[in-house]
Amino acid sequence: MYKNRLHEIDELKFKIDSFRPLSFDILKQLQEYYKIGLTYTSNALEGNTLDLAETKVVIEDGLTINGKPMKDHLETLGHADAFNELLEFAKSDSITEENIKCLHKLFYSKIDSKNAGCYRKNAVIVTGADINFPLPEELNCKMHDFIAGLPNMKEKFHAVEFAAMVHALFVNIHPFIDGNGRVARLLMNLALLQAGYNITVIPPVVRADYIRALQYSNHKNFTPFINFISEMVFEAQKEYLRIIEKIV
């Protein structure tokens, strides 16, 4: 269903790069736009009930939405904080364990400050799923190996393939008690930004396809997930190009 779009992605990136550098004001507008978009979509994939407009109100105005769980508001504010830090991390060319723990801490501290930024201390049990997440005592070693392997992987793969692999490998380690999916999507976007690509969201409407493609990676078959992410990047680039063509 999902095709490998790397060739088209490279062509669109060339067109997008022709508009760069963008002015500070335009760049700021785009960052705020994508902060809301990524926060909404990433949270919605995990069951957060705030819609896009409500997410915007919570982030920009700090208001609460009547009838919506407080946890949904805290996830929204936390993700927005993590997004802001993501933009700072994107100025570097590497992904560190400190980056990962910081992003989780920013996202999760308003929900559970004790476990924010700390690896889980319990095993993960997924009923009816053929997934074997590392045990707590294995996490430090698994995360060390994951981080240590990133430079070689970055050199070996196309930037979009690398971003997809970062996401998939991180989720398969599942180091935190909660919020792993959201951190994975932040890390994927960190890898994309560092390589000169724009923010990519995964719309909730394709959630089933997203999960299905990700499940293949549990068994080291990354092709379906790479293809899926390449389609998401391709669509994100088309939207980004439409926006900057209008405002630049």
What does this structure look like?
The protein is built from 10 helices and no strands. It has helices spanning about 5-15, 25-45, 50-60, 70-90, 95-110, 140-155, 160-175, 180-195, 205-215, 225-245. Helix 2 (about 25-45) crosses helix 3 (about 50-60), helix 2 (about 25-45) crosses helix 4 and helix 4 packs antiparallel against helix 5. The two termini are about 35 Å apart.
| Number of domain modules | 1
The biggest sheet amounts to: none
- Low-pLDDT runs of 5+ residues are none
Overall 3D shape:
globular
- Please identify the top-level CATH class: Mainly Alpha
In percent, how much strand structure appears in the residues?
under 5%
Order of helices and strands: HHHHHHHHHH
The helical percent reads: 55-70%
User: In CATH terms, what is the fold-level topology?
Assistant: Fic-like fold
Output the radius of gyration. 18 Å
List the helices and strands and how they pair.
Blueprint: H1 6-17, H2 24-45, H3 52-61, H4 70-89, H5 97-108, H6 139-156, H7 159-173, H8 180-194, H9 207-217, H10 223-247
Helix pairs in contact: 1-10, 2-3, 2-4, 4-5, 4-8, 5-8, 6-7, 7-8, 7-10, 9-10
Short characterization:
This protein is an all-alpha fold and 248 residues long. It has one domain (6-247): Fic-like fold. The chain has ten helices and no strands.
Keywords:
single chain; about 250 residues; mainly alpha; Fic-like fold; 10 helices; globular
